[in-house]
Amino acid sequence: MIRHLFKLIWNRKRSNFLLMSEIFFCFLVLFAVLSLAFFNIRNYSKPIGFEHENVWLLSLRPNTDSTAQNVVIQEQLLRRVRAFPEVEKASFSGTNTPFSFNSSNTQLSTEKVKNVYANIYEVQDDFSAVMKLKMQQGRWFGNQDNGSANPPIVINNKLKQQLFGEEEAVGKEISLDDTTRYKVVGVVQYFRAGSEYEADEPSYFSRIDLQKNHDRRYGSLLLRVKPGTGVAFEEKMVKELSGIAKDWTIEATTLEKMRNNKAKFTLVPIVALGLICAFLILNVALGLFGVLWYNINRRTSEIGLRRALGAPSGQIYRQFIGEVGVLTTFGLLLGVLFAIQFPLLQVFQVESEVYFLALGCAVLLIYLVTTLCALYPSRQAARIQPAVALHEE
Amino acid sequence: MLKNYLKIAWKVLLRRKFFTFISLFGISFTLMVLLVATALFDHAFGPQMPEREIDKLLFVNRIVEQGEEGHNSTGPPSYYFLNRYVKSLKTPEKVSINSVFVQVNSYVNNRKLALDLKFTDKEFWEVLDFNFLEGKPFGKQEVANADKVAVINENSRKQYFGTGEAIGKYIVVDQVKYRVIGVVEDVPVLRIHSYADVWVPITLRSQDFKNTDLKGSYLATIKAKQSSDIPKIKDEYAQMMRKVEIRNPKEVKKIFSFPDSILESFVRSFLGSGNENHVGLFYGILAGIMFLFMLLPTTNLVNLNVSRIMERSSEIGVRKAFGATSKTIIGQFIIENLFLTLLGGILGLVLSAFILNMINNSGIIVYADLGLNLRVFGWGLLICLIFGIISGVFPAYKMSRLQAVEALKGGSK
Question: Considering the entire predicted model, what is its pTM?
C-alpha cells in the first residue's frame, strides 16, 4: 500500500513538486518561529533569582565634570536616602541594573578554564537585601571583607558550572587580569537581570566599596521601599535630593515599570512574528485544500474504476489521506534535513533541546494541518459512485 | 482588448468563488503585512513632521575616536566640536546644535510625568518644520539671555494643563520652572534628532560649552540650501574633519564623523563598524527579507493557478486554433493575474489602514502617527505589481505551452 502510494506521488512528481516545496518552506517558517517561542518560554519558566516588587531605581546624573565635588554629593545623597523611614535598604549599582538596557561583561579565567565571558554587576553590600537574593552556597560580601587582599565576589550557578563544574567554588580564586584576582565568597542559584525572557548567563557581583574607591561615581541607586509607598513619597524624595544635589538630574522609576518595558521589547516581535506565521500557515492550508480538492475532482474516472473493481469507499478515503501524508513526508524530510543542522552545528548558542522540541512540534503541526486539509476532499472522493464516474467518461 | 481580458478575468473570478476567496485572502494579507512594514519604514525614514524637507537635511550624531589596535570609542559629539567646526561650514544654509534628549521627571497633582527634555538653539526651529498649535518658538533674544522658557508638545499640555491654552503658564520640569511660550504637535519618538516632550534654550546648559572634549551629548542638524548641495556639504565636512585638532594624540589616533541622512545614520550604527556607508547593503537585506516573506504566498498562488489551468484549457485551445500566439496568451494571463492582485491589493490597503490604526492607538510606539499616505500607497502598488508578475509568469507560461489539439480535447497530463 505504502509503496503504491510512493509510486503514485512519484509519477506525478512535477505537479507535486510545488506542493512539496510549499510544505518545505512552511515547515522552515514554523520551525524558526517555534524555536524562538520555546527559547523564550523556557527562559520564562526559570526563576529570575530576585524580587523586583517595591524596588525603585534612582538615576543620578551630575551636569558638571568636577569629580571630587560629585563624589561628595553622591555620599550625601546615599546617606539622605537611607535616612528616609520609607526606605528599607539602598545600594549603589553600575548602570546595568535589573531590567535595564545596559550590559557590562568581561572575561574570567581560572587555572583550568580560560576566558569565560561573564556579566559583571557592581553592587554594594546592601544589594542582596534590596533584591532579596537567595544564597545557594557561602555568604554575601560585607564588612568582614574590608581587609581582604583579593576583592570578594559572588558568582551565579551558571558561572560556577562553567569555571568549576561540580567542584566546590567558595574560597577559590578567579583571575580577571594579570593584577586582579577575585576570591569567591558565595554562589547564588540564579540571577537573570536582563529580563525574564533572557537566557541564564554566567554572571558575578563585585563589591563597591565607597571608602576604598573614592573617586568612582555610580549613576544608579537601587532602593527597597516599604510596601504601599507611592508617588507622593517619590516626589518628596526627589525634591529633597535635588536640594542636596543642585544641578543634578535625578530620575526615579520602579523596577516593575522597567520590567514591563523590557518585556514589551521581547513580546512585541514574538507576537508579531507569531501572527505572521499563523497567517502564512492558514494561507498555505487554504491553498493546499483548494489544490487537493481540485486534483481529486479531476481524478474521478480513476476513482470510479477502482470502485467498479471492488475497492470499498474506506480504502479510497485512506488512499487519498495517505497520498497527502506521503507528499508531506517528502517535503518534511527535506525540511528536517535543513533544520537538524541548527542543533548539530550549535548555531546561536541555544540549547539543543529547544531546537528538538521545536522540530518535533513543527513536524506534528504540519502533519496535522495537511491531514485536516485532506479530510474533506478525500471524503468527497470516497463518496463517488462508480456508475456516475464511469458514465462521465 | 484589455477590456475583454478584464471581463474574462472577472467572470473567472465569479465562477469558482471558493478559489477566488483563497487567492484574495492570500494576496490581501501578504500585501497588508508588506504595507504595514512599508508604513513603519516610511514613518522612521521618510519625510515626516518636523523633518519634512528630508532631502535637504543632514544629521551629525556620532563621533568615533579611534585609538591603537582598533580600539574605538563612539558617542555623540560635544558642543565644542559642533560649535567650532560644524557650525563654521560654508555650504549649508543653516546649522542647528541641540542636545541629546534626556528623560526627566515632573510631578503634577500627585502624578508623575516622565518627560523627555531637549536643549536647542534658535536655528533648530528654523531648520525644522514644526506644527505650532499655539504660541511660537524661542528666538535669538531668549537664547542669548538663557531665559527659562519652554516649547512643549501637545501630549504634555494635555497631561499638565488639561484642555485649554498653555501659553504664559508655568511648567516645572526636573525641579526647574519654565514659562510655556509654544505648543507643538507631538513628534514621533523614532525621529530621535528632533523628538522631545519639552524643548528649552540650549544656553541653560552653558556649563557644557567650555568642555573641549570632542565627545559629548550634542547633535547637529544641517540644512542645505538645495538638495543638490548635499554632496558638497559632505565633501566640505570631510575636509573639515582633517583639520580637527586632536588634543590627546596619545590615546586617539584618528577621528571619524559624518553628516548623514536619517537612513544613512541608522544604517551606519546598525551595520558594520560605522565608518563606511552601507545603505546599498541595507536595501539588499530588506529586499531579501521581503522576498523570503513573499515566497510562501507566491508559491501558494502559483500552485493554485497551475491547478486551475485545466479549467481554461478549452478556451486556450480555441484561441490557439484561431491563431493566437503564446505571447498573446502569456500577456492575457499576466494581465488577469495583475487584475487579481490589484483587487487583493485594495483589500490589503483597507486591512492595513485598520492595523495601522490599531498600532497607533495601542501606544507600542510613542506618538506614532502611522498612516497610509501617497508614498506608502505608491510603494504598495509597486509591491502588488511585483507580486502579481512573479505569481503570474509561471502559470501563464505553462498555459501557453498547451497544444491546441490537446487543449481542445480537454487537457493534458
Answer: 0.77
